[in-house]
Amino acid sequence: MAGYKLKTKSSAKRRFKLTANGKVKRKKANLRHILTKHNANSKRKLRKSGLISEADAPNIKRMLPYG
């Protein structure tokens, strides 16, 4: 008999992507609203993606069983 399929967390599949080396990418916060108080340099830095810390990565990978 075939094994069971695992469900992917829908919230996690929208927020995170796995890199080729197995790290977890994320989008940086604080770029949604009330942006007039931020200067242009900080807003530009927030556009780039970030990485999840090594401590949080196992939990996120458990939510994304099939990458």
What does the model show?
With about 70 residues, the chain is α+β, with helices and mostly antiparallel strands. It has a single domain, classed as Factor Xa Inhibitor. Helices cover about 30% and strands about 15% of the residues. The chain has helices at about 10-15, 40-45, 55-65; strands spanning about 15-20, 25, 50. It has a three-stranded antiparallel sheet with strand order 1-2-3. The chain starts with 9 loop residues before the first helix and ends with a helix. The model has no long low-confidence stretch (mean pLDDT about 95).
Name the features:
alpha+beta, Factor Xa Inhibitor, three-stranded antiparallel beta sheet, 3 helices, 13% strand
Poorly predicted runs of 5 or more residues: none
CATH topology: Factor Xa Inhibitor
Whole-angstrom Rg: 16 Å
CATH arch. level architecture: Irregular
Shape type: elongated
Helicity, as a percent range? 25-40%
Number of beta-strand segments: 3
Distance between the termini: 24 Å
Query: What's the multimeric state?
Result: single chain
User: What is the beta-strand fraction?
Assistant: 5-15%
Total number of domains? 1
**Major beta sheet summary:** 3 strands, antiparallel
Classified by CATH, the class is Few Secondary Structures
Mean pLDDT: 95
Tally the helices: 3
Structural class per helix/strand content?
alpha+beta
Strand order of the largest sheet: 1-2-3
SSE pattern, N- to C-terminal: HEEHEH
Short description:
This protein is α+β, with helices and mostly antiparallel strands and 67 residues long. The chain has helices at residues 10-15, 40-47, 57-63, and strands spanning 17-18, 24-27, 49-51.
